[in-house]
Amino acid sequence: MFCFRVLMHKLCNLDLSLLTYKQKLAFWINIYNACIMHVICLLITTCDIDNGCIIVIQAVLDVGGIVLNALAIEHFILRHPSDPQHDFMDEKEALLRRVYGLGYPEPNVTFALCRGSWSSPALRVYTAENIVNELERAKIEYLEASVGITSKKKIMVPRLLHWYMKDFADDIESLIEWIYSQLPRTGSLKKTMTHFLHGETKLPATKMVEVQPYESEFRYLLPL
């Protein structure tokens, strides 16, 4: 806890203006994950540890003199507005996008932001030098671990991916096609999905897909 407080103190005077896009991307992903982990450590003895909303709101820090929480980092800095008609911004959002915004979105942050829940992606440390490859690896590993085929012969899609579907596809049908295109050709999941997508008895996407509920139970998954 002492080391975290020292780090937080140094962040107060940090100037991010000279960082490159990749440096900012890695910085904000790592800060988000560290901030969430810190709050979970504080709440670990209470029943609130499974409440994701409380965690992202209470995960507060001061970066360069601007106080923000994990929710703001995710939606005002790392993501663009999900609504293309999002013309109105409140003062806080406008400030964060102007000072810390990345300029253009990186959809693969979906597979990097870890809330310490069962449905969250694995926890990793990201580096500016290799951030693109690291995010690509995180995406593939998340898809392979979270997408599956149910006993009722339906393609199971995680709720997290369904929430941010518009970052990757226009609708559920094109999302399934996108998932299929991202999977390694030699993987067993891709071979199984081939039967569903390109078989003679292809079903409509609404009958072929089952969205898995988001599990907020505490868990940190650490990649090997």
From TrEMBL:
Membrane-traversing stretches: 25-45
Pfam families (alphabetical): DUF547 (PF04784)
Alphabetic keyword roster: Membrane, Transmembrane, Transmembrane helix
DUF547 domain boundaries: 17-143
Entry keyword annotation includes Metal-binding: no
Entry protein name: DUF547 domain-containing protein
Naturally occurring in which organism (per UniProt): Acorus calamus (Sweet flag)
